[in-house]
Amino acid sequence: MKENAIRNTRVMLLHLPWLALLGWLSSVAWFLCDDAFISFRYVRNLLEGHGLVFNPGEYVEGYSNFLWVLELAAIWWALGVAPEDAAPWLSVAFTAGTIAAVLWWIARLPLLCHRGLVAWMALGLVCASATFAVWTSGGGLETRQFTFFIVLAVMCLSLYRDSRRGLLAASLSLAAAALTRPEGPLLAALCFGWFVIQRMADTGRPNPDWRRLICLAAPFVVLIGAHFLWRYSYYGEWLPNTYYAKHVRPWYESGFRYLWAAALETGLYLLIPLAAVAMRNRWRASRDGIWALVLLLVGVHMAYVMRIGGDHFEYRPLDFYWPLLAVPSSMGIVHLGSRIAAGRWLRRFSPRLTVDARTCAFVLFIPVLFYASAIQGALLFEGAAIRERILHLHIELDDRNAAWLLAAPGMPMLVAVSNDLRHQASRQSVALSFTEHREFANSQLRTWKPYENMEKGVIPDDALMADLSIGIRFYYLPDLKVIDLRGLTDATVARNPVETPNHQRYMAHDRHPPPGYLEQRGVNFTIHPPVTSEFQALGRAKYAVKVGPALWMPFDSPNQQWVLDRFAGRDFRVFDLNYWAELLGDSRPVIRSDWDVYLVGNGLIYKKEQCTPEDAEPTFFLHLDPVDVNDLPSHRKQYGFDNLDFAFRYHGLIEGGVCVAGRKLPDYGIAALRTGQFTGEGQIWKGSFDIVEPAGDGNAAP
Fold first, then answer.
1. Claim to verify: residue 124 and residue 41 sit in the same structural domain
2. 678 Cβ neighbours under 8 A, 6+ residues apart
3. Which of 185, 319, 460, 616 suits a disulfide with 648, CB 3.0-4.6 Å?
4. Same-domain status, 540 and 564
5. Do 335 and 275 share a structural domain?
6. 285 and 399 share a domain?
7. Is residue 333 within 8 Å of 365, Cβ to Cβ?
8. How far apart are CA 412 and CA 382, in angstroms?
9. How many angstroms separate the CA atoms of 56 and 464, rounded?
10. Cβ(178)–Cβ(312) below 8 Å
11. Does 320 map to a domain?
């Protein structure tokens, strides 16, 4: 017993560095994405009694992760943990389950030589994968849950296919995978076909083992069949609406770039051949085709991914490849190491030289690990350092940021090809880095999350908006109905034909509403980010309503009478001359030029009589000198002043030949300001003003 305890401790200490590495990489790559909040809104509506819908009363299946949605709903209902908080940690739990399943698989796999070394190398291949680390938090998506159930099913088929309980576990795992991701049924069918052939090999009979096949397939068929029947009865469709929104036509050229880039960055070009070596060796030794199943799943799934053109996210559909391939790839390394250690050429090289098979395997493992993880690791850290929203972000590896990588043999060519493939893909929104999704989500959260404190019942029941991004902003605006202009949650948009040729397409962004559809539906509302004052609100939109303590909602609508009727009785403002006249009172301008500029409270008001639209077209510049430079935003401190340039159309109105615009000032102390208008040809007018008291205290005076 003492020896077992010592051995277990030694094994744990050997594996601990790999687990620590995965934990570190996962923390670097931790993120939430906007798309996850689409499912989160379905969760919210389900718990609020509206059903599994995006807009109450509209039965459209705009998600493809049924089981994930139900799990998040159960967690929120039972534990009070909201989906945006629960989803990443649920993904971490499935990551732990995936690693545990891989280690259990290795520990129980019969006829395995050098078991401890195989386990150590397999864990290293998984934990050193930056791509695997990216999907540890999962962005709030169901990716790692799907991986766990596929790995669990394959493990059960490998170890327990002679047991009815093992077959039941495999069947339920495949059903859970199919309820998590739409490609689940495809992989399940491959498992069933492989099982028939493997059982023939196990029994030596040419006929299928129907009883065991039924044990494996029946639970899956019953559960998935029931889900299809429920879907049709609930939504009126056999397939989720996301299928119609995303599937336009085969897109092989994009899929090829996607997979080729993945192969170079994640070492698939090494892992798959090594797994093939293990497959051949195991079949010849015991007629066990489990590694043939792994390669079958990976190969057919790659064909599927190539057909659909890849994915909007970086290598998300391929996530289950790494834990499945890690075990046979490690076995392939051990087999090659044994062959080298026993080979004649080694003795010819040095007759007295003897090398242990484990040593040879370890020496082979090091370059495999490096070439399978170095490029993706460099991309991970380069991307993690970016803290700004960049559209179609492309990270170029070169001598400036990856000289260590390019020093390795063959890496300059691999990196050059990888750079080119990712650049081409990013221009069509394919395989976008987690960094871009993270930064977009962070900006959306900063902008829209304050609406979670909005009073209930403010937004009218017949308000309808249309937008391109329907994740975070409408999760925090659950009472507002919205038309998804890309069709994920709208059946009509999802089925509108796409004429754009493949070379001009954008992944998951091809659909558009048919002509006249938005008018037919009666779109009548456009909401803007929340602000803390009516002055700010009316600097962004024509209308503003107070929706909570220090919380104002700016919005626009083409029907003013509808607005007045729906918001009667609320603390409500209209952006018109009467409002500005009341705000200005008897104030005198602090700057007189082409425009009169007033300092009112902690904001500026620009006014021009006898104004034309051409007068308001040039950009307004507004530069502020702070009392204390340390109060400036970090990216402005090096310049010593703040830049709040703005366009009139976002902050002003023209009415009766009068132009008025408002611009709120920051809350730090301001010593002086300079403002005016300019075009590409130069300044049109300018003025300056020294502020005696800080503008941020609400009592600024000339």
1. yes
2. 618, 619, 621, 684
3. 616
4. yes
5. yes
6. yes
7. yes
8. 17
9. 12
10. no
11. yes
CA distance linking residue 26 with residue 131, whole number of Å: 9
- When divided into structural domains, the chain yields a total of 3
Of 434, 459, 474, the last residue of a domain is 434
Q: Tell me the pLDDT band of 327, cut-offs 50, 70 and 90.
A: very high
pLDDT band for position 224 (cuts 50, 70, 90): very high
- What are the structure tokens assigned to 256, written together? 């090829």
pLDDT at 345 over 60: no
Q: Mind giving me the DSSP string for 379-392?
A: HHHHHHT--S--TT
Question: Is the domain of 533 the same as that of 389?
Answer: no
What is the tens place of the pLDDT at every residue in 432-448? 999 999 999 999 999 99
**591 and 564 inside one domain:** no
Q: What is the pLDDT of residue 85?
A: 96
pLDDT tops 60 at residue 1: no
* Residue bearing tokens 């993120």: 31
Res 698: pLDDT: 39
What average pLDDT score do residues 596-620 get?
Answer: 90
Q: What backbone torsions phi and psi does residue 434 show, to the nearest 5 degrees?
A: -55, -25
Cβ distance 426 to 392 under 8 Å? yes
Q: What tokens appear for 197 in the block?
A: 């052939």
Distances from the Cα of 365 to the Cα of 118, 169, 271, 331, 338, angstroms: 10, 33, 11, 11, 13
Give the residue among 394, 329, 417, 345 at the shortest CA–CA distance from 120. Answer: 329
